[in-house]
Amino acid sequence: RKEFVDLYVNYVLNESIRKPFEDFMQGFLRGCPTQTWKIFLPAELQIALEGKTEVNWQLLEKNAVYRNYRSSDKIIRDFWTVFHKLPEEKKKMFLAFLSGSDRISPYNWRCFVLRIANPLLPDPDEYHPSAHICNLTFYLPR
Q1: Where does the record place the catalytic residues (predicted)?
Q2: pLDDT tens digits along 34-73
Q3: Alpha-carbon Rg of the chain, whole angstroms?
Q4: Which of 66, 74, 93, 137 has fewest C-beta within 10 Å?
Q5: Is the dihedral of CA 90, 103, 63, 116 positive or negative?
C-alpha cells in the first residue's frame, strides 16, 4: 500500500505535470533569465513579482495631486476622512478601481501619485466618480 501511495503521489505531483511545467519554465526563462533572479533572496523575489500587500495609505494621501481642487477643499477633506475610515479590504478595492491592481510594486510606491481631478461637469449630481487607470486619475465630481 505504501509503495502504491508513494507512486501515486509522485505521479500526481511530479510526473503528470512535468511536460506542461517544462514548457512554462522554458518560456519563463526566455523572458526572465535565471542570472537576473539569482540576485534576489526568495522573500525579495516574491515581493518583486507579487508586489507588497501592505499599503501606506497616509503616503497615498500625502502624494496626491489635485486638478481643479485644492487639498483644503471640503470635498477633498471629506473624501480622505471617509477613505481612512474604510476597512482595509475596501481601500484595496479602491486601489484596484484606480490602478487595475490591489497591489503596487514596492519600488513604485514612493512614485505612485494619485491624481484627484474635478471633471468640471455641468451637473455633477448626474455623474459618479470614475478613474483612468493609465494615469492614475480619480475623477471626483463635486
Answers
A1: 134
A2: 777 788 888 887 777 776 667 788 888 988 999 999 999 9
A3: 23
A4: 74
A5: negative
Single out the catalytic residue among 87, 123, 134, 135.
134
Largest CA distance in the chain: 76
Domain ranges of the chain: 1-50, 57-139
The rounded distance, in Å, linking the Cα atoms of 45 and 21 is 20
Q: Which DSSP state fits 124? A: G
- pTM equals 0.64
Distance CA 140, CA 120 (A): 9
Distance CA 40, CA 114 (A): 30
32 in catalytic set: no
Rounded to an integer, what distance in angstroms lies between the CA atom of residue 31 and that of residue 123? 49
* CA 98 to mean position of chain CA atoms: 9
